[in-house]
Write a structure and sequence with these properties.
The complex is a heterodimer. Chain A is mainly beta. Chain A has no helices and 11 strands. In chain A, the strands form 2 sheets. In chain A, strands 2, 4, 5, 6, 9, 10 and 11 form a 7-stranded mixed sheet that branches. Chain A has a 4-stranded antiparallel sheet with strand order 1-3-8-7, with no helix packed on it. In chain A, strand 9 and strand 10 form a beta hairpin. By secondary structure, chain B is an all-beta fold. In chain B, the strands form 2 sheets. In chain B, strands 2, 4, 5, 9, 10 and 11 form a 6-stranded mixed sheet that branches. A 5-stranded antiparallel sheet of chain B has the order 1-3-8-7-6, with no helix packed on it. In chain B, strand 6 and strand 7 form a beta hairpin. Chain B is globular. The chains are: A mainly beta, B mainly beta.
Chain lengths: 116, 114
Amino acid sequence: GAVVSQHPSRVICKSGTSVKIECRSLDFQATTMFWYRQFPKQSLMLMATSNEGSKATYEQGVEKDKFLINHASLTLSTLTVTSAHPEDSSFYICSAGGGGFDTEAFFGQGTRLTVV
Amino acid sequence: GENVEQHPSTLSVQEGDSAVIKCTYSDSASNYFPWYKQELGKGPQLIIDIRSNVGEKKDQRIAVTLNKTAKHFSLHITETQPEDSAVYFCAAKFSTGTASKLTFGTGTRLQVTL
C-alpha cells in the first residue's frame, strides 16, 4: 500500500493558540485527502474532504473557520486548528487517495492534540 | 446517506481460535468495503477490502465475505495471535473514485488471550 505521513504525532498547545497538522503522501500523488477526528473508544468522524487546488468540503457541524484545511499540492494537506480550546483535544487523522488507487484510502499515523 | 452497523463491540478469543466481526450497511449502491485495524495511538491500517463484484476474498489468515442481497459483510480471522489484538473498523462507500467518502462502523475491540 501507499504511505501517508502525518506530523506531528503529538502536540500540546495552550488555549487560544493555533496548531497546524501536516499530512503528506510520500509515494503517490493524492488528489483527495480526508481529515477525521476520533474521540477515545469511538469511531472516526469525517471532518472534511479536500481536493488539491480547491476549497475543502466540510461535514455538517464542522466549523470551517476553526478548522482550516489547505491542500496546496498533490502531496501535502494541512489542518490548522485555530484558537484552540480544551474541547478541541482529540486524535486527528488524515487519509489520502489517488495516484492510481481507485478506491483505497491510506491513513496517516494520527496526531494527538492536547489543549491546556 | 450510508449507515454502517458493526457487531460485536468487544470480542475476546483465545489464541488459535477464530474471530468473526460482522457489519451491515444501508445503501445498496455501496460497492467498496474495506476493513481497518487500529492499534492504540495509531492510525487505521487497511488489512483487507472487497468490492461488490465478488463474494469472498482471502489473504492468509484473514478473509472477508460479502452478501449484497442482505447487505452484510464480515471479517474472519483464523488462528488468532496476540498481535491481532486491536480495534477493527469496517467501512463502506459507493466508489466514484478516490473522492468518495467512507462511512465507518463503530469498531470492534478484539482481545486475543493466551
